[in-house]
Design a protein that fits this description.
46% helix, 4-stranded antiparallel β-sheet, 382 residues, globular, single chain, alpha+beta, 4-stranded mixed β-sheet
């Protein structure tokens, strides 16, 4: 593991820190899951992009800086340390963009990446269905070939689509070959959420905000130009997305080290010796995640890959997030209901062990693919 930054990396870190200090809003923006907050977060994305801080690792032609993986992690640490706004564009820039770079055509890259970087076009992740959550391959939404128009006709329903209530486009899998085996015959589609036949129904959360939606498809036409990867190859493309979601890109260590530092400051304000061990444990786990990430960066830089280790990563950061926020709420005691930042963070953290593949599924992956344990028999009692 290499923890030493070069002179150029230190210069990059200093530039990022200075820009964030000068530009991060003095007051937190309204929730990005409200119409007002959504627009303000889009404006923040545009501001980031104007100075090439939105997608630092991307090519310059797509508003990036061509930063290295090390520099990307450094920027993420500085971003969260500065208390900058949540990324309303995260589904696009962190989950979809790596797949467009890997599987998309040059035309798709030119068409989709620039507006993703600027925040002009926000993307929704439309994967889950009422009967297909962690077992994504059991999905029933269909894609029927339409040769006359040169595309596909989508039908079905997606649910728990993040950002879909306010987003502009979505991405997801549909079954294009009903005769193929379960994981085969799936195709990865990109689609506008205002297309004819698309119905978006926001799902109100306990706080009344609409961070998710269910999306219905009724004979929605999608041209061949909006198929990502080859028809029938959707599962392989989707697993690339899942790897990005579980691995480095969606939950960078800066998110948790910044929260751990806030937790230490909160303990100074509300000291409780009964909770001291939990505070220290949360800080240590955040630091362990940071060091683990740097180890992964070193491995990737040397030609390795994330692979099944992404499942270890996902279990760790999701359970760390819950522990950090539970400890903060216990420190606050009855006042916790008045501290919206910690309370909002806590309610969101509870979804972490569920999305991107439940932690139960991830533990099976770790057991089978890393530890070499035998596969769980089908139909085994739980």
């Amino acid at each position: 593991m290499d923890l030493e930054l070069s002179e150029s990396e230190l210069a990059f870190q200093a530039e990022a820190r200075a820009w964030l200090a000068a530009n991060v809003p003095a007051e937190p923006l309204p929730s990005l899951d409200t119409p007002e907050g959504f627009v303000l977060h889009q404006a923040w994305e545009a501001k980031l992009s104007a100075d090439r801080w939105s997608v630092v690792s991307w090519p310059r032609e797509y508003h990036g800086r061509e930063a290295s993986l090390v520099e990307w992690v450094v920027f993420e640490e500085e971003y969260y340390r500065a208390g900058a706004p949540l990324r309303v564009s995260q589904n696009g820039i962190f989950l979809l963009a790596p797949i467009i770079f890997e599987h998309g055509t040059r035309e798709q890259q030119d068409r989709f990446l620039p507006t993703m970087a600027t925040g002009e076009r926000i993307w929704a992740q439309c994967w889950s269905e009422p009967e297909a959550g962690s077992d994504l391959a059991s999905l029933k939404s269909t894609a029927r070939r339409d040769d006359e128009r040169g595309g596909w006709v989508l039908n079905g329903q997606k649910i728990w689509c993040s950002r879909a209530a306010l987003a502009h486009w979505g991405f997801g899998l549909f079954r294009s070959d009903p005769e193929a085996q379960k994981h085969a015959g799936l195709t990865y589609f990109l689609f506008p959420l205002d297309a004819a036949g698309v119905t978006v129904r926001p799902i109100a959360q306990l706080d009344g905000e609409e961070g998710f939606a269910e999306v219905f498809f009724d004979d929605v036409f999608v041209p061949d130009s909006d198929v990502l990867g080859a028809p029938g190859d959707g599962w392989r493309v989707a697993m690339s997305t899942a790897g990005n979601e579980r691995g480095l890109s969606l939950r960078s260590p800066g998110r948790f080290t910044a929260a751990a530092d806030r937790l230490l400051a909160l303990y100074d304000e509300h000291p409780d010796p009964r909770l001291a061990d939990r505070v220290v444990d949360a800080w240590l786990r955040a630091e362990a995640y940071r060091l683990y990430t740097w180890g992964t960066v070193t491995r990737l830089r040397d030609g390795g890959d994330v692979g099944a280790a992404g499942s270890v990563n996902k279990v760790w950061w999701s359970e760390l997030d819950v522990a950090l926020h539970e400890t903060a709420l216990d420190l606050l005691g009855p006042d916790a209901e008045l501290e919206s930042s910690w309370l909002d963070g806590y309610t969101f953290s509870l979804s972490g062990p569920i999305y991107a593949g439940t932690n139960e599924i991830q533990r099976n992956i770790v057991a089978e693919r890393i530890l070499g344990l035998p596969r769980e028999p089908k139909g085994a009692s739980k």
